[in-house]
Structure formats: C-alpha cells, structure tokens
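can u do me a favor
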C-alpha cells in the first residue's frame, strides 16, 4: 500500500528534470557562483592581521551580532573566520529562498494550475508529486553544498580548510532542506500559492529575527530556532557538523509530516479553509485599478518591508565604516574616490545596491500581467468593457510608481540607520538625491519589460538575465577590473553617483526618452498581437 502511494516516482522525477533542467541549473550555478566568488575575494579584502583583529571588534557590535551572529575566538581572527562570520548566514538565506520557490511551485503552484490533477489521472501514486518534490529539493541542496564547499576549498588561503569549506556548504544545504520541509507543510495548510510563499517567507523572517535576539542575549532562543543550528557550527574553527545532522533529522521529520497532511486533505483544498470573502466587492475592487492593486498588494507590502530593512541594515554599518574599508584594496576599488569623505563615497555605492534591489519588485509586478495572460485569466477581463490599453497602463503606472516608492523606502531606512550609527550623520537630502538619481534607470527596465510583454510575452524572463548582467557589470565591474564599456551596455552605467559626480541632465533625458519609446512600442505590440495562453 505504501509503495503504491509513490508509484512511478522516479519516472516522474526524470520528467521533471527534463522540464525544469534550465531552472535547476540557473539556481544552483547562480547561488554557488556568487558565494564562491565572494569567498575568493576575501584574502584580498583583509591582507593584514591587524585589520582582521579590528574587524573582529567591529563585528562584536550588538547590531552586527544580530545581523551576522556571534564572533568566535576574536583574538585569533582569520580570513576564514571573517568569511564564515560575515557570509554564512546570508548564504544560508539564498538556499532557503531557492527551496521556498521550488517547493511552493511544485506543490501548491502546480495544484492551482491544474497540473497535479492531470498527473494524478495517470497511474501514479497519491504522493508521487510530493515524493518527487522532496527528492528534488534534497538533491539540489546536496549538489549546492558540494559546489560551494569544493569551490571555497580552492581559495589559496591557509586558514580556509577543506573540512571547513565543506562544513560551510553543508550548513547552506541543510538550511535549504529545512526550509523546503517547512514550505511543504505550509503547502498542505493553505489553499493558494501566494499564501504559501508569503507564509514561508514570514516563517523565514521570524526565525531570522528570533535567531538574532538569541545571539544577542545567548538565551534559549539560540537553540529553539532550527535556522540557528547550521549557523552555530563555528565554521572554520570547530566545524560542529552534528548541528547540521540535527537540522537534517528535523527536516526529514517535517517532510514526513507534510506527506501525512497531504494524504489527509482533498485536492485543491487546504487544512485551513480559506476565509470566505465579502458577499459584495467594494467599489474600489470593482474598478480595474483596484483589482490590480489587490493582486499586487501582498507583494508590494513585502518589498516595502524588505527595502526598509535593507536600508536600515546598511545604515547601521556606517558607525564602524573605517574598520571595514581602510586599507582594503577591494573596497577602495569599489569607491568612486575624490575629495569627499569616506562615508559619503561609501553611501554612493550603497545607494546603487539599494536602487538595484528596489527595481526587482516593480519588474515582478509588471510581469504579473504576462503571467495572468499565460493562465488565460486576462480573457475574462477583456470579455468586459475593458481595453488592453487601459489594463497595460494600470500595470505600467503601478510599476513606475512602486519604483519611486521602494526607492524612497530604501533611502529612508538608510537615513535612519545612518542617523543612529553615526555621531555626525550624512545629510538626509544628500542620501535622497543619491537614491533618486537612479530612478530613470529603474524606469528604463520597466520600459524594457513593457516592450517584452508587447512582442515576446512568453519570454519576459529575458529581463532577469539583463538585470543580473547589469548588477555584475555595474556593481562588481570595478572589483574585477571590467572595462567601462560593459557597464555602458546598461542604463545604470550612465547614472551619476551623487554627490561624488556632478549631475548631468543629458544622460537622464536620453534614458527617459528611450524608456518612452520602448513603452510606446510595447503598447503597439500588445494591442495588435493575439493573447497567449
């Protein structure tokens, strides 16, 4: 009987691997390349032992402990310890996010789209889809752990050992498996994919915050949060892999709970019944604009919180900025230079990161139109008195306004962090000006998104490839001595880093003009083409 529950699991697994191989490769190579590339930069970041000791003292700041975890053996701080201290928890977040996306899509997402119903009409078991999801997420995280572990082991630094590097990768993989198990349970509890993803990220955020509280006071919260176990392995020092094994043990128990709950519920239902809506929609919801805003509300709130925390986190670093930057060749290469103080130069670089992050959410909001079209949902809207021009305009304007809003929220978080951490903080207006200088480049990406929706609705993911290229070309270009030509292939390469650079009106006008042209062409293409389902 139990075997029948997983009938043809491996046959279906092969099918999933063929269908999603590019997505799987993208996740694995993207995360491992980023983590390993950052790791290989560390020996050049802190070439002097005195700098490392100073860094250890800076990392013992309560704000730093809450963000990155405690510092172990600060008197003998090494490059390996700095890497583990500063990067391990954030690297763990990458695998957790990957697992949330993969598991939610393969469970509740496929169920919503009717794919699971189609699969279960074939001679497969009741838990075949769930079994494939568990196998896939476990092996993806194992491969990710090995790629990162062996990649870090190649760093030419004595303190970075093979055992420590594999422990580093093991912690990342264990975290991804843990979040995959938690997401699987949440997929059985709630009825739609958006709720599952929202609750998964909420659980991840709460565990991260409670972990920080536990690290600050060394109380029982340290051991109550499973997320903290992989982070407490004391990587490159004692390498307590027993904590990673414990995390895996709990994860497999949670996988079993998820399978049990899956058997207990009906198809397309959740253990928690969805709250019934109002008998009559509000006047705002009856309008196309209100309807679109309702669809995007959860995502917009999530990105507002994310940008504020990101800005606040970066702002808190400014109090110990000299320790992080002075004497580091890599950081000095990243800074624009000039006569301005070090903190102002660093702020101009940080605003680039905040601006790039602020551009992610609005692109997702705009692409929601293409997603709804693929699911044949827009046909129901166009059956009413609603024109294509109006619906595209609502999504476009919402994306443009949310770009400005998220940029402001990120800048506000940075301002508050700077005000708290610095004795003589940078002026708030200066930070806002540095941030909003990037708004034309963010709008350019929206224009490109509209153009893709107009002519290539099935290939809107192209914009993410271009976005990743822009990040590496502009942000990391100076570090790896990339010729300026590559950054000029993106709109961000033409943005002046205020207040270091003088503001130029011509690049802004050109970027906005190209944006308007792309939007206009996108409208023409969208109006004239057939709907794609």
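np, heres the sequence
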């Amino acid at each position: 009987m139990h075997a029948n529950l997983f009938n043809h699991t491996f046959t279906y697994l092969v099918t999933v691997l063929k269908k999603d191989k590019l997505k799987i490769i993208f996740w694995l190579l993207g995360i491992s390349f980023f983590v390993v590339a950052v790791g290989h930069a560390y020996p050049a970041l802190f070439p002097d032992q005195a700098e490392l000791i100073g860094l250890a003292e800076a990392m013992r700041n309560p704000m730093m402990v809450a963000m990155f975890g405690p510092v172990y053996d600060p008197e003998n701080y090494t490059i390996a310890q700095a890497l583990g201290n500063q990067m391990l928890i954030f690297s763990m977040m990458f695998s957790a996010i990957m697992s949330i996306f993969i598991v939610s899509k393969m469970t509740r997402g496929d169920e919503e789209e009717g794919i699971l119903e189609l699969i279960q009409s074939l001679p497969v078991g009741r838990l075949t889809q769930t079994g494939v999801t568990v196998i896939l997420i476990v092996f993806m995280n194992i491969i990710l752990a090995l790629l990162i572990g062996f990649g870090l082991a190649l760093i030419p630094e004595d303190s970075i050992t093979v055992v420590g590097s594999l422990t580093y990768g093991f912690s990342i993989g264990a975290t991804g498996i843990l979040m995959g198990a938690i997401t699987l349970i949440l997929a059985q509890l709630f009825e739609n994919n958006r709720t599952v993803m929202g609750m998964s990220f909420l659980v991840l955020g709460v565990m991260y915050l409670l972990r920080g509280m536990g690290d600050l006071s060394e109380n029982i919260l340290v051991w109550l949060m499973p997320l903290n176990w992989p982070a407490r392995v004391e990587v490159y020092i004692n390498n307590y892999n027993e904590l990673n094994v414990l995390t895996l043990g709990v994860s497999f128990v949670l996988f079993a709970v998820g399978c049990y709950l899956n058997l207990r519920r009906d198809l397309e239902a959740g253990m928690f019944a969805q709250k019934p809506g109002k008998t009559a929609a509000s006047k705002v919801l009856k309008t196309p604009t209100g309807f679109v805003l309702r669809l995007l509300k959860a995502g917009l709130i999530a990105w507002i919180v994310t940008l504020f925390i990101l800005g606040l986190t970066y702002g808190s670093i400014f109090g110990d900025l000299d320790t992080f930057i002075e004497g580091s060749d890599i950081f000095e290469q990243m800074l624009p230079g000039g006569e301005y103080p070090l903190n102002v130069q660093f702020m101009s670089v940080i605003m680039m990161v905040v601006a790039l992050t602020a551009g992610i959410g609005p692109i997702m909001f705009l692409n929601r139109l293409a997603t709804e079209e693929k699911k044949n949902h827009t046909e129901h809207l166009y059956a009413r008195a609603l024109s294509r021009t109006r619906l595209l305009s609502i999504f476009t304007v919402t994306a443009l306004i949310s770009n400005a809003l998220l940029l402001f929220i990120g800048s506000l978080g940075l301002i508050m962090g700077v005000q708290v951490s610095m004795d003589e903080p940078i002026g708030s207006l200066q930070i806002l000006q540095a941030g909003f200088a990037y708004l034309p480049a963010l709008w350019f990406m929206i224009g490109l998104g509209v153009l893709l929706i107009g002519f290539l609705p099935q290939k809107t993911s192209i914009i993410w490839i271009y976005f990743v290229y822009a990040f590496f070309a502009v942000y990391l270009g100076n570090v790896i001595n990339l010729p300026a030509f590559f950054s000029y292939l993106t709109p961000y390469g033409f943005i002046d880093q205020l207040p270091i650079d003088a503001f130029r009106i011509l690049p802004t006008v050109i970027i906005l003009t190209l944006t308007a042209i792309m939007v206009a062409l996108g409208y023409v293409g969208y109006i004239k083409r057939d709907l794609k389902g």
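The first helix runs from residue 2 to 5. hope that helps!!
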